[in-house]
Amino acid sequence: MLRALFTAASLLALCAAASADTTLLSGGHVIDAERGTVLKDHDILIEDGRIKAVGRAGTLGASGATSIAMNGAFLLPGLSDSHVHLTSRSDIHGYRRLTVSTARAAISGVANAEKTLRAGFTTVRNLGAPGFADVDLKSAIDSGEVPGPRIIPAGQSIGITGGHCDSNLMPYEFRETGGGVADGPWAVRQKVRENKKFGAEVIKFCGTGGVLSKGTSIGAQQFTLEEMKALVEEAHELGLKVAVHAHGAKGIASAIEAGVDSIEHASLITDESLKAAVKTGIFLSMDIYVSDFILGEGEAAGILPESLEKEKIVGKAQRERFQAAVKAGARMAFGTDAGVYTHGMNARQFAYMVQWGMTPADAIRAATIGNAELFGLTNDIGSLSAGKRADIIAVTGNPLTDVRELEDVDFVMKDGAVFVNELAQ
Ligand SMILES: [Zn+2]
């Protein structure tokens, strides 16, 4: 009897909490991101930060809910970006970066996180930040102190001495070294363990040279296959996925063999590696917008002349390989390298993905359910279905017809809380 009373009281308490925090988004067109179809005139009922039901307008019986009129806007799952650097600024490149402390980078991160969220991106993987500033940024966002997307932080990027993930700008006397530098299988394992210890939720490492680093060659593999295998094995053992920065063909092939979860950039991926990627289900996260920023505004932002030369070679090639990857049926993530270009413009990449071979539905799928699969978060994000987190955005035009609609988002909700609502009420 006592137990029955207790149960009834708990239920009452639960019901009270639920009705106090129930929202109805009424009269929108709901985009089914998985199928690429539109459910016309639908409502979404949200309870305690999660989607309770999606149904025809007026059928969800949501008495007591706070109602927000969607006025025929198109509703989508919150977008996600698999490759950002929230603590970086697009106007601080090259030698200017030496003037930025970790604390200063974290402050930029606060501003950039808000810009990203307001642009409709409710989840991001932050693939590299100095001094674990992204872990702290995540903590500040999760505690409600500052607005921002859900962050999967990588902490310090791991790389070889003198590689793309090192800092190569200063002469020897300054002993300037990147925080994630490690050489040898055991040193690499130690770095993975250290990253995990300080809050990394994904491991990022550099498997080839890069565009923006000094003195590295895009085609050159960084880390031996033995080191890559040790890194991936250690990360997976600790429950962390691995994202590899890789432009050159050899580094990409080795990283696939080592068992990474996503190839970032994948610029010069061969047909053979594409086949291997399709077979293993590895995601390709190809940032095909950023080249226009680097070649257009990079020089004024301090990007080194050698980097501009490298980008001229790699940018166009990457778009062609993106097209080949789409044709081959590779799993495509939506990753942009925001931070190299200006935060909040992430959605500009959609039009490039469509121009280079994807349908708008496929591009949207990459930024929603596709990334959710890569992140291991399909129970929480990626589609507008009952049980998932209420991460919902809206635009006034149909993005399946014109994907550039996503460049100007009119409504943003994350975990059931509204951050942007520019829809006429
Ligand atoms: Zn990056």
How is the topology of this model organized?
Layout: H1 2-20, E1 22-32, E2 37-47, E3 50-56, E4 66-69, E5 74-77, E6 79-84, H2 102-118, E7 121-126, H3 133-142, E8 150-153, H4 185-197, E9 202-206, H5 225-237, E10 241-246, H6 249-258, E11 262-265, H7 271-280, E12 283-285, H8 290-297, H9 305-328, E13 331-332, H10 348-355, H11 360-375, E14 392-395, E15 411-414, E16 417-421
Parallel strand pairs: 1-4, 1-5, 6-7, 7-8, 9-10, 10-11, 11-12, 12-13
Antiparallel strand pairs: 1-2, 2-3, 5-14, 14-15, 15-16
Helix pairs in contact: 2-3, 4-5, 5-6, 6-7, 8-9
The structure holds zinc ion (ZN).
Task: Walk me through this protein's architecture.
This protein has 425 residues and is an alpha/beta fold. The protein folds into two domains: 96 residues, Urease, subunit C, domain 1 (Roll); 268 residues, Alpha-Beta Barrel (TIM Barrel). It has eleven helices and 16 strands. The strands form three sheets. Strands 1, 2, 3, 4, 5, 14, 15 and 16 form an eight-stranded mixed sheet that branches. The protein has a five-stranded parallel sheet with strand order 9-10-11-12-13, sandwiched between helices. The radius of gyration is 22 Å and the shape is globular. The protein starts with a helix and ends with a strand. The N terminus is likely disordered. It binds zinc ion. The site of zinc ion has 4 residues, from loops.
